[in-house]
Write a structure and sequence with these properties.
By secondary structure, the chain is of the alpha+beta class. It has helices at 5-21, 83-93, and strands at 39-47, 53-62. A hairpin with a 5-residue loop joins strand 1 (39-47) and strand 2 (53-62). The N and C termini lie far apart (54 Å).
């Protein structure tokens, strides 16, 4: 336990409260033969220009490497912008 442990605990509690208030998850029974995908906390310390801590952040992330294609998911998507859409937006902004 370091001197900043209470700040990390507060960041973790804030993340938990945010997820609960946004109703991001439900506790349900697992179907037979299925395993739950585990999650973990990722901590990040935000620093200012002088390397002084300004924010302690905690995020819950799924251990995606435990997923199996065709069982836990079928498709994966990533947000990308088509060059034509970018040019249209720039033209509208001009």
């Amino acid at each position: 336990q370091g001197w900043d442990a209470p700040k990390w605990e507060e960041a973790t509690q804030q993340e938990y409260n945010t997820l609960r208030s946004m109703e991001c998850f439900d506790i349900l029974p697992l179907p037979a033969g299925c395993k739950a995908i585990q999650s973990m906390l990722v901590y990040k310390l935000k620093l200012d220009r002088n390397n002084i801590p300004i924010r302690y952040k905690a995020r819950v992330v799924a251990k995606g490497y435990q997923q199996r294609w065709g069982v836990d998911y079928v498709d994966s998507f990533s947000a990308t912008a088509h060059p034509t859409a970018i040019r249209a937006m720039l033209a509208l902004a001009a």
